[in-house]
Amino acid sequence: MSLSARLQVNPEHRLHKINPRLYGSFVEHMGRCVYTGIFEAKHPSADAFGFRQDVAGMIRELAPTILRYPGGNFVSTYNWEDGVGPVADRPTRLDLAWRTTEPNTIGTNEFITWCRSVGCEPMLAFNLGTRGVAEALAYWEYCNHPGGTTLSNLRIAHGYSEPHKVRVWCLGNEMDGPWQMGHKTAEEYGRLACETARALKQCDPAIELVVAGSCSKDLPTYPAWDRVVLEHTYEFVDHISLHLYVNDHELPDLPAYLAVGLRMDAMIRTIAATCDYVKALKRGKKDLFLAFDEWNVWHWKNMHPPGFQPWCYAPAQVEQLYTMAEAVVFGSLIISLLRHADRVRIANLAQLVNVIAPIMTTPGGEAWRQTIFYPFHHASKWGLGEVVFSRMESQTYATKEFGEVPFFEAVAVRAPDTGAITVFAINRHLTEPLPLTLDLAIIEHVTLTDSDPLATNTATQPDRITPCPAPQPGNLPPLSWNVIHLQIR
Ligand code: AHR
Questions:
Q1: For ligand 1, which residues put their CB under 6 angstroms from it?
Q2: What pLDDT, in 10s, does the model give residues 436-449?
Q3: Are the C-beta atoms of residues 476 and 447 closer than 8 Å to each other?
Q4: Residue from 294, 296, 348, 351 to probe ligand 1 pocket by mutation (most atoms less than 8 Å from CB)
Q5: Looking at residue 2, what is its pLDDT?
């Protein structure tokens, strides 16, 4: 079969604005994300705090906008007080989520200072697993109150005279997951989240609160969890979270895997509908937005511990290589987020360094970029402004889970100042190039592709797969991620 596709873009038909927070990421105290990831005191590139500047430079290049911290499952037994004050006085704790030891060398103040230094906004999570309203209020006060109270003065005494002004806060993490420390029913969590949110909004109505929605469409509580939790919290929260990790488990072949991103569209539609239902039920006036605050491709391999291993510090946990095919799946997830950016106002690629991550490090050695680095980098660079109307036509292929799936998938974005149009597109066909018919002229076409769908970048071959100018602009190579800049009339 010879493939072809047509794309009509109407730059004047603006569909919705893209919140820059769509390009967030996530730093959890897990595996080597923090220790020997962003922070490694003895690394040759470390700054005075011990943060690796080679990694910081790569993060600036990736350009995430907002970073969620400190978890993740980690947060559900975390005591924020352990991570502030003189480092020498901080306790070493057991982290029950990942069965590691946590020295608390990095805590909230160091994270926020570093986070802003790499150009990102911090997004903090409260522990609503083993803790409650009082501890959440205390954490907010320590971080955000200007001074004159015991907790805000403590922050000042710790060397941070200015309040951190953290605007986005998560009300716990994955509270619907039976693995979560302090896991709760929807009723129990809904009540706790409501009272925590009510108290926090009393302190500062300008903060934005993310209530923990469903973390998997495969849990039996999905999506009733979201309805019940929102019935409790609608008045006090701004966003509801959802999580999605895709992989090839239970999919018959690579073509089916290349379509797995369609699960994201289905989840967004379901949770947006649940938000609208609760709004109607409450006779409410405000819309709720979605925070896709964990998403990625994840094989669930290299988990630590597979059984009960000895407690250890910063193990190489959940480190996986991303293939070329997975960069295309990843690209399809970015396209999905952009298409739904009217409802998804925050999204966090989980995670940023080493743990299911676009950036990898070798302790004492180099940092390098995985295949998925590039679609994210392209989108955070050129995917700002507004999504505009586009119409796609291409051949399809049959799958069991997703029905007929198009080989060609795309979204068009109009830049805020110049009105320039950028198209992000994938070709899911494994062997056929896809010639594209467009109404607008192409200025530039960059592509990410490789003849081997299972090829990856590695520490020893970090630049096997990198973006390059498309050999024939407008012709999407087999199995490729593409960025096409169009001439506006
Ligand atoms: O991102 C890794 C883990 O995945 C997070 O800690 C948790 O929230 C999710 O299950």
A1: 28, 30, 71-73, 173-174, 294, 350-351
A2: 999 999 999 999 99
A3: yes
A4: 294
A5: 86
What is the CA(27)–ligand 1 centre distance, in A?
Answer: 11
Q: What is the pLDDT of residues 212-245, one digit of tens each?
A: 999 999 999 999 999 999 999 999 999 999 999 9
Query: Ligand 1 centroid to 174 CA: how many Å?
Result: 8
0.90 exceeded by pTM: yes
- 18-385 placed in CATH 3.20.20.80: yes
**C-alpha dist (Å) from residue 284 to 242, 277, 278:** 22, 10, 8
Q: How would you list the strands of the sheet with 468-469, edge to edge? A: 468-469, 442-449, 480-486, 421-427, 408-414, 385-394, 5-18, 434-438, 475-476
Q: What is the pLDDT of residues 280-309, one digit of tens each?
A: 999 999 999 999 999 999 988 766 655 667
Calculate how far, in angstroms, residue 104's C-alpha sits from the geometric centre of ligand 1.
19
Report the nearest-CA residue for atom 5 of ligand 1.
Answer: 72
**Separation of alpha carbons 72 and 92, rounded Å:** 19
Domain ranges for the chain, please list them.
18-385
Confirm whether 61 is a catalytic residue: no
Task: Indicate which atom in ligand 1 lies nearest the CA of residue 98.
Answer: 6
Whether 40 is catalytic is no
Which tokens go with 284?
Answer: 């409410």
Reported confidence tier of residue 3, pLDDT bands at 50, 70, 90: very high
